[in-house]
Structures are given as structure tokens and as C-alpha cells.
Amino acid sequence: MAQRCYGNNFNEYNSGVFTPTQTAPNDNSTSYILDIKGLQVMDLDYSSSSYVCVNGTGLETCGEDYNRVLTVVKKKSSTAFARYDSCSYNLELTGNTDVSMASDASSGYTTLFLSNQQHEISIPALTSEVYHPFPSFVEFGATSMAISQVKDTVSVDPYNYVEQVYPANGEKNYKEED
Q1: Are 17 and 10 a contacting pair, CB within 8 Å?
Q2: The whole model's pTM is what?
Q3: CA within 20 to 30 Å of 171's CA: 42, 45, 61, 68, which one?
Q4: Residue ranges covered by each domain of the chain
């Protein structure tokens, strides 16, 4: 069965839709992130806070660093995301998607974005009316088959991030062109 891709109605998202590289700063509410593969908006709920510093991430690593930067962590696990991907893959999909994002609370820049999408297709029952491409699966009682696993990772090097965005001397490290 062919699927039509209409995308999301972005007008229903009053607080804006962002890419996985930046979101609204100082925001503990739900973030709406555009998944360009499935043309869908993923809503990520606030989960916790953490830190990024020149030595790495997390309170254990950055606890003693006075130049640490607060990050906001948002997560969501959903079976609906895989179903919405049916449009872009032109298949009736099921599965699960886990998304996690940590962003700088002051600037909104993403310091870590992880997405793990697992897609499956249903295997129809073996009948005389339908040609079945995988008859051996049905004979063993299989009802679905994994067809893809897509992992996305966007991360920053903590040392370079803190040094470039929040330099210790207060001056940006860039050279103006003549």
C-alpha cells in the first residue's frame, strides 16, 4: 500500500520547530525537533539537567569546574515515530524510536543528540490468494521482520565547545577579515 507524504502541519506548533542542532535556550518545556528523514516533528520532553565543561560532560566530571555550562536533557521513546516514518519509506512500518538531546541552557546549542530508530514490517499470513515473498518466515510463526535500524548522533567535543562558546578570557577566538 503506497503512502502519501504530507509532512506535519507546522502551524500547530506555537513554540517553534527546531533542527537537532539547536533549540530554544533556557527551556525546560517540550521541544519540537524536525526529523528530516520522516518529515515529522518529534516532541521531546524535559528529563533532567547536566553540565558540559572542558573536561567532558556530567556532574561527576564538571562538578569542580567553575566554568561549567548547564545543559538541559530531553528524551522520548515512542512507537508512533516509526509509524509516521511509513510515509518516507513507502511501507507500513512499526517499531520504536528512542531520542535523547542535551542542549546548552544559555544558548540552545545542542551538545549531544542521539536517535535510534528501529523499523519492522508486518508479514501477512500465508494464503493461497497472496503471493508471499517470505514463506519460510511464516512457517516458523514470524509475524514481523526487522528491515532497518537508523542511528543518528550529533555531538560536540566538550573542550572545544566550551573554549569557543565560553572562552575563559571573555574574547572570541576568531580573526576578522581585512
Answers
A1: yes
A2: 0.72
A3: 61
A4: 13-165
